User: Fold this.
Amino acid sequence: MTFTKTTEQSSKYEHLENMSVHDLMININQEDKTVPYAVEKAIPQIEALVDQIVAKLKLGGRLFYIGAGTSGRLGILDASECPPTFGVPAFLVNGIIAGGDKAIRQAVENAEDNPKQAWIDLQAHNISENDVVIGIAASGTTPYVIGGLEICNKNNIITGCITCNAESPLSQTAQYPIEVVVGPEFVTGSSRMKAGTAQKLVLNMISTATMIKLGKVKGNKMVDMQLSNSKLIDRGVKMIMGEIPVTYEQASDLLHKYGSVRNAVDNFQSQ
Assistant:
């Protein structure tokens, strides 16, 4: 099988240093516009993986993202946003990056080159066949990610991946591969750009669809969101007002009494 890293191919733009800021913005934006169309082509793959995640989480399992560099950081970002957005426990969705927490802010040399480390990192979370592990790697060749999925497969753990190259070693390893082929980057090889955007869009789709199917959204509202600041409290009060016939003050009292939009509405309607 021939495998070509299209993410590493030369940019179709030349002499970037000679472009005006305006032209840089226009050309970067032109490339960014292609990303949603690449994601659209991968929707059947995304759907297949989400079905597996929902089934496992309904049985008490968890979701893990593993990655290195930008890919690892994107996984951590998506995982960290699930508790405040959907009111789920922090252990339900987990992001693990090669090199550990230090690598979130700065590169850790050679961290992605150890094919055994991801499994060690997953074992620290008592990973089991109840869980799902998604490997994220734009190139589709990261040893940390591939090695982690290989061992997960041997341990009957469902595996998926998000990559931006077709028919990569990572795609061949994952049981449920997602390939979003975005082509060459504006700056040759800078996969934090289109590839990173594509990965973020797919992660949004995976976590949001999963949480909706787990009942964490009612209508189109985040009824279980954490009320961690004044803005969110105000949003919660207005959500309650949209569901039941109460004033702002009454909705505020209900929210403070019951702790969430869902509980406030349910308790009011049961009265």
Notes: Residues 194-213 form the longest helix (20 residues).
